[in-house]
Structure formats: structure tokens, C-alpha cells
Amino acid sequence: MKKLSFLTLSVITAISLNARENPFEMTNAYEEEAARIIETNETAIHEAMSEASYIKEMQEKMQKPKVEDAVKKLIPVIKEEKPKEKVYTKKEVDTLINKTKKQTEYKTKQIVKKELEKELKTTKIEKPAQVVYVKPRPDIIDDELITKKILPFVDIEYNDEKFMIKTDSDISRKFTLDKDNKIIIDYKAKKNFYTKRDTLESKSFKKITVGNHKKENYYRVVIELNSKPSNFEVTYKDKLITISKTN
To answer: Which domain of life is it from (predicted)?
Structure first.
């Protein structure tokens, strides 16, 4: 033990003496320390670079799922954001239909207007048609008759000159009332109806009335005239009565 302590002390003394002789001379201990420091720095730099690379790699790995999730979430949103087809209410449809109708009517009116203008211009250019007036003959009677069904079993036809009654019943009697300007005809039949009156569009015959006398088994037709019954002639033929104006 004493020998080891002495040996250690001798080495330290020798180093100290050498240091005093040349303080600028590099020792082995210094070189080793410098090498160790450089090696330590290189290792630290390499570790720092490795750590930075590792951190970057981990960040990319951590961010990749987030990006993928974001893309997955964005795709359905983009798909859903397609323009939706407009749905019209009944009121909107009716408005559109009315608008279309008005536009069509307006266009049609414009077309008709143009055609009429063309036709009018053409007509103005052409010679006017000659109008020939024919004087009516006094011996020709207007044959146009007005037809009416007073009851299911009574039909009449008339104009300004004559009056006809058609029925399915037989005539019972005929008479006139000069004071009231009436011609009266009774028919033998038992009918079920209420009294019927009608105004006539004629210059000679004013009104007709059909009354029911059910208990007496007949019904009566009364024709009111515009003048005395003596100005008319009454004829009978096959259940057809014709009253003609004579004066």
C-alpha cells in the first residue's frame, strides 16, 4: 500500500515538473480530452439529427391519418353539395301555366292581328263588291216558324201570319171571345198537369194558355190575339189546328 502511494506521488510530481518546464507543450491527457470532446460533439450532433428525423417522421405519421380523415369527410360533403332539383308547389305550377297561357294568347292575338291587317290591305286594294237590292214581293209570306213544346202532348209553331197547334187529343169544341180577342179550343182528354202560360214572339199572336179541367175530362187551349178573332181563320186537319191571319 505504501509502495502504491509512493508510485502515484512520483507520477504526479513528474507531470508537475514537466508542466513547469514547458507550459505550452501538449500533453497526452489534453489530446485525449480534446478527442473525447470532439467525439462527444459528433455523437450529440448525430443523435440530434436522428432525433429530428425521427420527430419529423412521427409527425408525418401522426398527420397522415388526420389528412386522410379530413379527405374522407370532405368527399361526402362535396358529393352532397351537388345542386338540388327545384321542387315546385301547386301554386307555382298554376302560376307558370297561367303565364304560359297568357303568353300563348298574346302571341295568337298578334298573329291574328297581322293576318287581319294583311287581309284589310288586300281588301282595300280590291274593288268593292256590288250590292244588289231586291225589293221584297208583297205576295211572299215569311215562312220561318218558331217552334215550342208547351207540354209533352202540346206543340206549337207560329210566325206573324199563322199559328198551328199539334196534339194527340181530339177536339171537343171551338169558340171565340171578341171582347177579349181570344180563340178558345177544348180537347177531350184526361191529363195530369198544371196550367201552363207562355208569351209569343209574334205581331199577331200575343199569348197562349193551356188549362186543365181534369174532373170534366178535358183541357183548354186559349190563344190571345192582337186584334179581333174575326180577322183570323181557323182550320182543322188530322188533330192539327191552323189559325191564319186574313186581315
So the answer is: Bacteria
Q: What is the pLDDT of residues 60-76, one digit of tens each?
A: 666 666 666 666 666 66
Which residues in 13-50 are b (16+ Cβ under 10 Å) and which e? eeeeeeeeeeeeeeeeeeeeeeeeeeeeeeeeeeeeee
Residue with cell 510530481: 13
CB atoms closer than 10 angstroms to residue 163? 25
Asked whether the beta carbons of 178 and 237 are under 8 A apart, the reply is: no
Rounded distance, CA 219 to CA 192, Å?
10
This prediction's pTM: 0.43
Residue 15 lies in a domain: no
How many CB atoms lie under 10 A from the CB of residue 218?
A: 19
Largest CA distance in the chain: 191
| Amino acid of residue 8 | T
What are the pLDDT digits (tens) for 158-184?
999 999 999 999 999 999 999 999 999
Q: Give the model's pLDDT for residue 2.
A: 43
DSSP 167-234: ESSEEEEEEEETTTTEEEEEEE-------EEEE---SSEEEEEEEEETTTTEEEEEEEESS-GGGEEE
Q: For residues 183 and 117, what is the distance between their CA atoms, to the nearest angstrom?
A: 58
- Verify that 207 and 180 share a domain, yes or no: yes
User: Residue 163 in 3-state DSSP?
Assistant: strand
Domain carrying residue 78? 30-82
User: Do 168 and 156 share a structural domain?
Assistant: yes
Tell the residue number behind the cell numbers 171551338, with chain if given: 174
Listed in sequence order, the DSSP H helices in the chain are 2-21, 28-80, 90-125
